[in-house]
Amino acid sequence: MKVRNILRRRRTETGIALLISIFVLLLISVVAIALIVASGTESALAGNYRSSTGVYYAALSGLEEARGRLLPKNPSSFKSTAGSFLPAPGATLTIGSVAYVLNPGPTESSGTLLTTYADTQYDTEFGSGALASAAVTTTDSVWNRSPLNALNVPGPLYKWVRINAVSEKSMNIDVDADSLADSTTPLYYDGTHFSNSSSAGPQVLEITAFAMLPNGSQKILQYQVASTKSLSFGAAFNLAGTNVTFDYPNYGGPPNGSYPFKVDGTDVDCNGLPTANPSVLGLGWTDSHQPSYGSNGPFIAPSSSYLGSGPNPSIGNDTATLSPTFQTPAQVEAFIQQYGSDPSTVSVSGPASNGTLTAAAPSMSVSNPVTILVDGDLTLSGSFTGYGMLIVTGNFQYTGGTSWDGIVLVIGLGTAKEVGSSDNGGKFRGAVVLAKSRHSDGTVISGTNLGSSNIDFNNPNGSSFYYSTCWIDAALPPGGYKVLSFHEISQ
Predict the structure, then answer these.
(1) Cβ–Cβ contacts within 10 Å for residue 181, how many?
(2) Fewest CB atoms less than 10 Å from the CB: which of 37, 71, 202, 261?
(3) Could you give the CA distance from residue 188 to residue 185 in angstroms, rounded to a whole number?
(4) What is the pLDDT of residue 296?
């Protein structure tokens, strides 16, 4: 009986091992399939991440190239490589002016790039048909210019970068709280907020980059930027303010001595030789009226020694081309504060002289321009020569033998005078600005109008003034374009 029961149990358990084995194999198969699927998903995610990261940095490289090339001191700057691509640094870029940096691949053409990779984002911001009616300029990326284009090294895969001005409408903001979306007035940056007023500070520029990888991944990135240090000058000698005075107007002659006095808007290089760059005004002013000429009679037409553009004196209003920095008391004072707090600025207290500047900036030389801020009066005598940017907040006096290569800003009291007649032949090469932002007691002028700046040329054979973009660029301290906002635009 006992044996029979044992045999019956054994027959009941027949095949259980097979079922267990099948179940275990099925479980292992499910786990294996899950691992394969997970691995494939992970690989796909990793691939998508690589593509997303790659196209992101390709677009970012386009943004950074354009931002870097906006700097005049960059060897590949737009100013150096494509003079008509953008307005001069500091000058206004109008709404409707669109500049593209093109970066075609090895099998692509610059001529068809904007057709192949159309910029639909511009019309999204500025309205339907805005790009079709825009004034478009183009230039090549650094990767398609010498010497990089000769290297067998692939560049970043962005296709184009757009640079344009922005408005309330394009940015969908109301900066002046008037409930109107202004579409034609460019925006400016006052250091904290956007503004419709050009006197607020540097203009806001928009930089947009489009990138596309061979696998079809696309990305649009966008900066809004503003210059931290960029100046523009409409003349060799700029008188900013109202009721300005140009005293002793022997402008360009007559050459009654060995060193005839000149104010020349023809651009010269750092050696004083004429360049192919466009000329500017010799004398410019920002008032609605032509300067008065003090007590020394009417304006004297230039003689044959005059080297400006055209047969007549190159004089005129340069409000549109002189940096807004020098056109309101608040902006002038902000500029003084900006450079006064800059660690690279050599600051001295007035009254100062040749010896003061030499002692404060002993390394100043033709190869090492220096920014010097004189807080007070400055008198330069003899045959002194300086290099860099000179800022004088008081009265500036100099002899006819004084020379300065770079930028001279007599801002604050805004008065300058040539004294003495024994020293002749001095040359100011670069640009000079006079702007009166303070009363005689040193208090800042209220309102938006500057006071009356004045230059008194006592010696018709004294220092001459020549416009030089070379020395202007050399005198400007390193600056940059500050990123005000960053956008990643979905596709």
Answers:
(1) 13
(2) 37
(3) 10
(4) 44
Contact status, residue 437 vs residue 414, Cβ threshold 8 Å = yes
pLDDT tens-digit map of 233-272: 989 999 888 777 655 444 444 344 455 567 888 899 999 9
CA torsion through residues 471, 474, 476, 480, sign: positive
Q: Are strands 378-380 and 395-398 parallel, antiparallel or unpaired?
A: parallel
**Among 158, 145, 177, CA closest to 61:** 158
Contact between 152 and 194 under an 8 Å Cβ cutoff? The reply is no
Q: Phi and psi at residue 144, in whole multiples of 5°?
A: -115, 20
Residues in the chain: 491
Measured CA to CA, the distance from residue 112 to residue 243 in angstroms comes to 53
Residue type, 251: Y
Q: Which amino acid is at 165?
A: A
3-class secondary structure, 341: coil
Residue 192 and residue 175 in contact, taking contact as beta carbons nearer than 8 Å: no
Instruction: Please give the pLDDT value at position 58.
Output: 94
SS3 state at 246? strand
Q: Higher model confidence: residue 24 or residue 411?
A: 411
Pairing of strands 245-247, 135-140: unpaired
Find the range with the poorest average confidence among 54-58, 126-130, 239-243, 396-400.
Answer: 239-243
Rounded CA separation 127/265 (Å): 41
Assess contact for 54 and 215: CB atoms under 8 A.
Answer: no
Residue 388 · residue 364 · CB < 8 Å: yes
Do 326 and 435 contact (CB within 8 A), yes or no? yes
Please tell me the distance from the alpha carbon of residue 134 to that of residue 169, in angstroms, as a whole number: 16
Q: Is the dihedral of CA 355, 356, 359, 364 positive or negative?
A: negative
Please report the pLDDT score of residue 357 as a whole number: 96
What is the rounded average pLDDT of the residues 284-292? 74
Stated as kind and residue range, the H or E segment containing 464 is strand 464-467
Can you say how many angstroms the Cα of residue 34 is from the centroid of all Cα atoms in its chain? 56
